[in-house]
Amino acid sequence: MIKLDNLRIAFPFVLLLAYGIFHCAYFFLPDYSDHYRLFGRMVFPLALFTVASSVRHLRHSTLFQLVLAYMLYLLLTCFWADVMDWYRLGQKLTISIYLVTLITSTCFLVRWNRRFFDLMLCVFLLVAALAAVGNILFFYSENAFPTTRLEIYGSLTNQNEFSNIYGVFGIMAMGRALVAQSPAVKLTAAAIAVLTILFIWLNQSRTAFVALLLAMSVLTITSGKGKQLMRWSLGALVGIGVGLAFLLPEVVEEAMDRGTSLRPQIWLEIFRDALETPILGHGLTQKVAVQFENIRLFETAHNAYLQVFWQGGVIGLGIFLLLLYVASRQAWETGQREGDMTIFCILLFTMTVMLTGVDTLIERPRDQWILFWLPVVLLLANFSGAGSSRPEANGS
C-alpha cells in the first residue's frame, strides 16, 4: 500500500514533470485543441491540489486580485451580450479556471523548490531552441532560402504566434546570459538568444522583431553589469540586426512587400463598432466581424487593447490597463531588487506585440499563455514565495 508521506514527496515531482511536458508540447502537438486537452488531462487534475495553499498566499496580492477582477468582469459581460451563448460562456469559464490553476501550480512549484523550477525553464528553453533549429533545417531543405516565409510545426496557428513566444524565449535566454556565472551557460544562453532573433527574422514577423530588439536593448541597459558589458551587448544586438539586413536582404524585401496589411482598416471598423456600447462592451462570447468587399471575413481585432475595449468596454479596458501597470511596476521593483530585469522586459515585449496582435487573452493555450500569462504567473510566484515556507502537497 502506498503511504501518504510517499505521495506527498512524489507529488511536486510529478506536477513539475506534467508542467514541463505541457509547455514543451507547443512544439510537438499538431493543434492547439490537443494542447488544451493535454492541460486538462495532465496538469489540471494535479494543479487542483495546489489551489487552496497558493490562493491563501496570494490573497493579499494586488496583481492577483486584478487578474481575478479582469476574468470575472469579462465573464459577466456575456450576460448582456446581444445573443447569450451558454456554450462559449462555459468554455471561457473553463479556460479561466485553467488559468487560475496555472497560477497556483506555478506558485506551488516555486515555493517548493525554486532551483528545480528554474531548471525546468532551462530545459524548456533548450527544447524550444532545438525545435527552432529542426524547423529551420527541415523547412528550408524543401523551400527556397531565405525568401520563403518560415512555416513551423506545432500547436500554434500561424507564424506570428510562434514569433511571439520565441521572442519571450529570446529575452529569457538573454537574461540568463547576463546573470550566469558559468561561461558555458553564458555562451549557451547567448546562442539561444541569437537563434531566436534569426528565427523571428526568417518568420518575417515585423512587430515581434522590433519589439524583441527593443526589449533586449532595455534588458542590457538595465542589467547593471557594467558599462563595458552593456556596450558589447548593445553593439552585438545592432550588429546582428544590421548583419541580417545585409546578409539576407530578400527577407526585408518580402516583409516590406506585404505592406501594412488591412490592420488599420480593421482597427477603424472595430473601434466604430465598439463605440456602440462603449461602457460595458459587446461581451466576451461575441466575435468581432469585419468584412471587406471580395476579401475574407476577419474575426479578430489584431490588437489586444482594442479587443478588450470591444468586449468589455471602458470598464474592461480600464481593468486591463491597471493590471498591466501593476504588473509592470512589480516587475520593475522585483528586477531592481534582484538585479534581473527579465520579467519586466518580457512585459515590455508583450505590451508592444499586443499593439498588432494577440487578441483575446482568455483563450485556449496559444501564444497568450507564454506571451502574457507566463510573466504574470512568474510575478505572482515571486510574491507568494516571499517569506513563505515549504508548501504542503495537499493544499491544507
Structural account:
With 396 residues, the chain is an all-alpha fold. The protein has 2 domains: 54 residues, no CATH class; 279 residues, no CATH class. It is built from 15 helices and 2 strands. A two-stranded antiparallel ribbon has the order 1-2. Strand 1 and strand 2 form a beta hairpin. Helix 1 packs parallel to helix 6, helix 7 runs antiparallel to helix 14 and helix 7 packs parallel to helix 15. The longest helix is centred in the last third of the chain and has 35 residues.
Radius of gyration: 21 Å
Mean pLDDT: 86
Q: Helical amount among residues, as a percent range?
A: over 70%
Principal-axis shape: globular
Total helical segments: 15
- The domain count comes to 2
Q: Descriptors for this entry?
A:
mainly alpha, 396 residues, disordered C terminus, 2 strands
Give a short synopsis of this structure.
With 396 residues, the protein is mostly helical. The chain folds into two domains: 54 residues, no CATH class; 279 residues, no CATH class. The chain contains 15 helices and two strands.
Give the topology, please.
Layout: H1 4-24, H2 32-47, H3 51-58, H4 62-76, H5 86-112, H6 114-140, H7 159-179, H8 183-203, H9 206-221, H10 227-247, H11 249-257, H12 263-274, E1 290-291, E2 297-298, H13 304-338, H14 342-353, H15 367-385
Antiparallel strand pairs: 1-2
Helix pairs in contact: 1-2, 1-5, 1-6, 2-5, 3-5, 4-13, 5-6, 5-15, 6-8, 7-8, 7-9, 7-14, 7-15, 9-10, 9-14, 10-11, 12-13, 13-14, 14-15
